[in-house]
Design goal:
Shape: elongated
Distance between the termini: 86 Å
Strand order of the largest sheet: 12-31-30-29-13-25-28-27-26
Number of strands: 31
Amino acid sequence: LNVVVTSKYTWYNFLPKNLWEQLHKAANVYFLIISAIMFAGNITTWTGGTPLFYCIIKFYSTFLALFIMMAASAVMAALDDYRRHQADDRTNSQLAVLIQKGRAGKATINAVQWKRVAVGDLVVVRGEEEFPADLVPLATSGDEGGCYVSTANLDGETNLKIKSAAPSAQTALCADRAGDADAGAGPPLLNQAVDRLSSLIGVVQAEAPTKSIHTFTGSLQLGAGDGARQHALGADNFLLRGTQLKNTAWCFGVVVYTGKDTRMAKNSSRTPMKLANLERVVNRAMLIVLGTQAVLALLSDLMYCSYKAHFWNFWYLFPNGSGKESIILPDWLGYWFTFFILYCNLMPISLYAAMEVCNFAQAYFIKNDLGMYDELQDCPALVRSTNLCHELGQVSYIFSDKTGTLTQNVMELKRVSVANQVFGEVTESKGFDGAEAMQIARRSDAATARALEAFLEILAVSHTVMATTDQWGTVKYEAESPDEGALVEAAGALGWNFRNRAGQSLSVEVADDPAAGPGARKYEILAVNAFNSARKRMSVVARTTTGELLVLAKGADNVMLERAAKSDSELQAHLAEFAQEGLRTLVLARRSLGAEEFASWHAEYEAAQTALQDREALLAAAAEKLEVDLEIVGATGIEDKLQEGVADTIVSIRTAGIKLWVLTGDKLETARNIGYSTKVLSDDMEVMILDCAPDTGADALGGELADMRRRAEAAAAGAEQAALMVTGAALEKLADFDVSAAFLEVATRCQVLIACRVSPLQKAWLVQLVRQGISPQPVTLSIGDGANDVPMIQEAQVGVGISGREGRQAVNAADFAIAQFQFLQRLVLVHGRLNYRRACKFILYSFWKNAVLTLLLFYYSFLSGFSGTSMFDSMVWTSFNVILFWPIIATGVFDRDVEDAQALRNPKLYESGRLGLDLNLAKMVEMLASALVHSLILFVVMLLAFDSMSTMRKNDYYSFSTAVFTWLIFAMNYRVVFVTSTINSIWIGVVVFASVLMWVVGLAVLSRVPWLSTQGPWLHNVDVAMVQDPLFWIGLLAVPALSMTVDAFKALLILEFFPDRKGLRLERLALKINRGRLHSRPTRE
């Protein structure tokens, strides 16, 4: 079937698959094992046999809580997947138009659903429609079989691509029939092509399904027997599912791949799973908790083994006279299990669920922040990985693309170098301002005029731009890159106006042709050697109207100058000047071809075009032979303006202590000047440059790195900042010579790194180098806007895509998406910082509250003769995590210690997350110490109030334990109030109604429905007995009051005598705000 499935589950695999996914969480596995151990201890209670070990806690009390938490996660996963199923159904149920064989062998057109399309079907697609499968076009409404296709859905590129039907098929189906009276000029007609289809015999062969969206190898055979003709098919003759037909009335073709074999399906691999740094910390903390639980169980077990004989003589405990209890396991092992189960609540079962709820809410706030909404593009912020919301608050390294990320990706030609002269200046005005000077130079000197004509000819002819005309007659250019579009537009403004192309014919209207006057020049494009990231250049072979054969080429300066017939020092000086002004440079060149040379080369080119194996390599080799001994004609300097707010954002990022690495394909001088204009670099920096010649050896490179390390250390000793600029050539040498560790030492000592002339894979390699080479592993963030940024976005811990002019592939691969680089400041310094602090609070609180409960049970074991008896009824004990789940959720969602504007004005506040000040080993130790103190407070008040463990002297154990549990609930809620910085009405409602009232109502129900409790009628009216005791009310006030006194004293002590950096910065900020308020008060006259 021609179906593409993006959903994860089906009705039959949802339960096992989701269960398997949830069991990858350590806490879920832990509680499942605990439930199984409890079950093993409980089972003999029901059968009446000898128990394996004594287990007071009922297994379903823990299993029920685990089931609720896992069920909630499963429901959320099911809802998410249900939406995916709906989206899949909408896609696969769209209607496609098929050409099918009707009565009397006549072709007919019928509509079927996409999922019914099969290989070999003939599909008709009309303008603005998507292709339902991968097709080989047979005919189109365009001239010479051409059609325009938008591939933005597939590769993220917004520029239209030109595709074409095989010329032989287009001719057979659409050429006017001889003798047709109705045949006339105009575009081919669909019904005409369909009528002719029944008389056409053909076979299409295609390569095996692959992932490559830029290549295709196949063949088309038309006719049969001796008259059969075979034609090679390439990427230009291949239409992909998910792409859209544009500026073309219709197209039909034969289906070659469907469903999972289509290029779109082959490239729809899932984004790599990223585990949040805080989740790693939580997993490590759980190991510590597990060890602590085992130690507490061991201590209690040792105490039981030491004192068990003492209790055997108590007749009221053993009325039959036999004190020795009977269990299957040895006492020392059986009672270790008893206590291990008793203390299992030390592990917070609700933590994962709390994190999911808080992450969901934090993502909602990011998506709805008007401060990150771009009205021009109608583009809000997006969150694709909710589990990384708090990761934004811990970033140490930011890796940024330049073009389209720091700049607008709106290209304008500003300066050109022709005939040893420079025309144009970099100004704020729009467009190229050197046109008048070029006209004067053209009239003054014949040689200059010829050079300018050759220069403009390359701009107007050597490209792959397509010209389209809208309904108002305006010509629009569709270019594969903004640079190319800018150059063609500039050529038009200078009098060489590209009009259109029809097949191999290209038309240029020259405003002032010195040979023939104003009019159109025709060029026959005989070959195109396309641009790619490896070649860094493109060229065409064109035949002029006079029959002259020309190679017209343009590309990066380093590759073009290597292929020049002679060097041009003047041009190189101009290139350096352009780069210093931050312009993107290209070198233009040409040469004439003889007929024999062209015939020999073109035969090799055609053979490469029709090759079924290694076609791309053969074409590159053919182009290499042609692009030699070039005559350098001139150079261009294109400006890519900075986005609004880029410089201020970079200053804030650096002030926050985040190291910024800018990774660009520009040449070194261009990157340096962009660095200064964006304030990535500053005048007081020690700027070091690492570049390598082709013959640079390992020793020389190692010596240079050692020298740079000394310079960076000297800069740091002098309270200066160091910056490093490195080229792509140097990065290649680093990998070849395996000296990346030495390079990383230098790079980490620098505040800024700029890498220029780097490929997409080198960008990803730099991110990987930082993540794997620095310990502890820092949180990295990559930001970019193009398809070439996807590798580094996926390699980084946090990926941010910018919805710019290069499509949405970076956005689709990212964890977060914003419309402009300046929004990164708010995303990281405001949302990231708040989310990190909130997450740390609810993580520490979750461990703290469970530690207090467990320690209370540990103390109680000394009063219960180390029998393993729980202080609380199983159902009461189980409700602990449910009741206290909601208050800290409110804190994790709404808490904020400073206002947004204050966080933006004081970027240094960000260091609390970058340095991990809010959640670390010291904080965990502090948390355990606090739990120890608070549990002792509760235990001491319990002993003082209920010295005989009863209420109102009734020896009512159940009223006593329920009263203590109520104190515990109120003390835990007090703690939430203490750690929360801001309290709003929603927070109050959650604490009061979702926690306190939940316990009050739950206790009332439990006291009146006997079967809900494991203790049956013993809990009947326990709430009444509890509230009738005055000591209960005294304790209800005393426990939170004593806890608050201890917490306030500790906070004051730390702030006054042992302040940390976070506390000092917040105190300074508070003083600054108070001084501002004082100065703003009106004075009395």
